[in-house]
């Protein structure tokens, strides 16, 4: 019976003794100490040897029998099941054979081969200009808590699965909000509530593209959307972007192009706003090619000095535009709630696909959000956030003018929650070193190069660029972060033998807050 001695360091009778006995016997079955057909130690003898109650040992034996490791019968001695090839339980060392690569579907192999940016796992920095992040202190905690408590206490007949298209109350609230705030008229039945804009894009990719198709895509553009479309096996047709957004004159004429992805209200990342002439050209192109337009309105509520630009969907008379909206920028990316406004003929299949993916989005959060929209609290919150983020934007532009080199350029300032900073004294290959050097000084900045899909035309050079989000920082943090970044850029310039000037200028363009100047064109 000595083979059943408890592992060193364990105490007989301690909480979890039954689990340790279970693990011990499973390990001995796995390594052959207790071979198939052998008699298991009696519960009485094992309990006496280990100093635990017989009830504890019996419970472990019953679990092993239920899982098929032991064979028991009334009046008979328990025996090891035969034949067995039992894996060692977690935490028990056992020899491991080398495993071959998993067999994946074509889709799985494409996903495995996609180049994706690493998830942030480094230590957080004090001045993090992460785009897509918003300040936790900006969340409307009191209003959300009141609405959440009211919905939580609301009596329901039962807790069951909800419709895949989302709660009717939220879809009706969105119908009214989109008409008021974004100039978009639709029926509530056309709204599909999803887990953020990323799921919306993924559904579009899966339902509208096949391997061998092609899609037009802004260059530079949102990498996660491009990867979603590429995962289907479709080919990316990179379409250049200039200071006015997507260059519609460069749209591909390939009939294999099934859709185009655009961010017309605030092009990501360069910030251009697609003018009405190009919007009409884009709609005409989609009609000629029988293609869909995915309009991602990721931060369309945040426009400064003017009311938000109406959506592309609002002038679509042919039913070509699929509108994607999200609450990630106005409330929180952690909420994971977004929505699609679909052409009527796509509604049934998108609902079915949503049902297959995850049934539906969280019901309680949908009802809370509907209550906030219907009460007007959500729109008041958006107006307050617009004012607050305008202050942050002004602080960022002032910091660039005061602390960064004279040839620095900023684009995308008219709207949204981020800008792109161009540094003509540095080349794209310097972005990685610049990001690392800034992070070592507690400043988080992010390179623009991964957002480009195509190769630049021969002879056309591009400066190093950074995408700077400012919605999660205070005015003071923004100013201090820019001061440190300026020192880092100066140090890199000295290392490369370049002069560093700080005279408060950026480049030609319209006047910016703080005495600097912002470049009026996003074209690189």
Structure description:
It is a single chain. Strand 1 and strand 2 form a beta hairpin. The chain has 14 helices and 18 strands. The strands form 5 sheets. It has an 8-stranded mixed beta sheet, with helices on both faces. It has 524 residues and is α/β, with parallel strands linked by helices. The C terminus is likely disordered.
What attributes characterize this protein structure?
single chain, 524 residues, alpha/beta, Arc Repressor Mutant, subunit A, Aspartate Aminotransferase, domain 2, Aspartate Aminotransferase, domain 1, 3 domains, eight-stranded mixed β-sheet, four-stranded antiparallel β-sheet, 14 helices, 18 strands, 13% strand, disordered C terminus, DNA binding, pyridoxal phosphate binding, aminotransferase, pyridoxal phosphate
Concise synopsis of the structure shown:
The chain is an alpha/beta fold.
SSE blueprint and pairings:
Blueprint: H1 17-30, H2 43-50, H3 54-66, E1 70-71, E2 79-80, H4 106-113, E3 127-128, H5 141-153, H6 168-182, E4 191-194, H7 196-208, E5 214-219, H8 223-230, E6 235-242, E7 245-246, E8 257-262, H9 276-289, E9 292-296, E10 321-326, E11 338-341, H10 347-358, H11 363-375, H12 377-403, E12 409-411, E13 418-423, H13 431-440, E14 443-444, E15 446-447, E16 464-469, H14 475-495, E17 510-511, E18 517-518
Parallel strand pairs: 3-14, 5-6, 5-8, 8-9, 9-10
Antiparallel strand pairs: 1-2, 4-11, 6-7, 10-11, 12-13, 13-16, 15-16, 17-18
């Amino acid at each position: 019976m000595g083979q059943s001695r408890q592992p060193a360091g364990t105490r007989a009778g301690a909480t979890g003794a039954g689990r340790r006995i279970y693990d011990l016997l499973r390990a001995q079955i796995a390594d052959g100490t207790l071979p198939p057909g052998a008699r298991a130690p009696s519960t009485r003898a094992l309990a006496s040897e280990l100093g635990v109650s017989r009830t504890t040992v019996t419970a472990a034996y019953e679990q092993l029998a239920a899982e098929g490791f032991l064979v028991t019968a009334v009046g008979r001695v328990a025996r090891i099941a035969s034949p067995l090839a039992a894996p060692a339980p977690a935490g028990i060392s056992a020899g491991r054979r080398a495993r071959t690569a998993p067999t994946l579907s074509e889709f799985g192999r494409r996903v495995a081969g996609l180049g994706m940016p690493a998830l942030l796992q480094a230590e957080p920095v004090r001045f993090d200009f992460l785009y897509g992040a918003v300040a936790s202190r900006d969340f409307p905690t009191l209003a959300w808590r009141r609405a959440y408590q009211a919905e939580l206490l609301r009596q329901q007949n039962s807790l069951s699965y909800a419709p895949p298209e989302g709660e009717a109350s939220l879809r009706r609230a969105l119908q009214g909000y989109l008409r008021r705030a974004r100039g978009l008229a639709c029926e509530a039945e056309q709204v599909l509530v999803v887990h953020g804009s990323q799921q919306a894009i993924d559904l579009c990719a899966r339902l509208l593209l096949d391997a061998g198709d092609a899609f037009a895509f802004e260059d530079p553009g949102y990498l996660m959307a491009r990867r979603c479309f590429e995962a289907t096996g479709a080919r990316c047709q990179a379409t250049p972007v200039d200071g006015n957004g997507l260059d519609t004159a460069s749209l591909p004429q390939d009939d294999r192009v099934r859709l185009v992805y655009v961010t017309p209200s605030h092009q990501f990342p360069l910030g251009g706003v697609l003018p009405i002439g190009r919007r009409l050209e884009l709609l005409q192109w989609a009609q000629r090619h029988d293609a869909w337009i995915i309009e991602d309105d990721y931060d369309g509520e945040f426009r400064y000095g003017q009311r938000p630009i109406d959506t592309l969907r609002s002038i679509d008379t042919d039913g070509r535009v699929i509108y994607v909206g999200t609450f990630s920028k106005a409330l929180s990316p952690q909420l994971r709630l977004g929505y699609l406004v679909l052409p009527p003929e796509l509604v049934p299949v998108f609902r079915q696909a949503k049902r297959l993916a995850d049934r539906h989005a969280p019901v309680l959060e949908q009802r809370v959000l509907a209550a906030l929209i219907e009460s007007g609290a959500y729109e008041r919150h958006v107006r307050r956030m617009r004012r607050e983020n305008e202050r942050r934007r002004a602080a960022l532009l002032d910091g660039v003018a005061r602390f960064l080199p004279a040839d620095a350029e900023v684009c995308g300032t008219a709207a949204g929650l981020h800008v792109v900073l161009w540094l003509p004294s540095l080349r794209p290959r310097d972005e990685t070193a610049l990001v690392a050097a800034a992070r070592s000084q507690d400043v988080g900045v992010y390179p623009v190069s991964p957002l480009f899909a195509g190769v630049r035309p021969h002879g056309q050079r591009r400066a190093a660029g950074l995408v700077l989000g400012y919605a999660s920082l205070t005015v003071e943090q923004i100013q201090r972060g820019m001061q440190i970044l300026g020192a880092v850029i100066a140090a890199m310039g000295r290392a490369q033998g370049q002069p560093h000037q700080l005279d408060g200028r950026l480049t030609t363009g319209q006047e910016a807050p703080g005495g600097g100047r912002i470049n009026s064109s996003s074209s690189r």
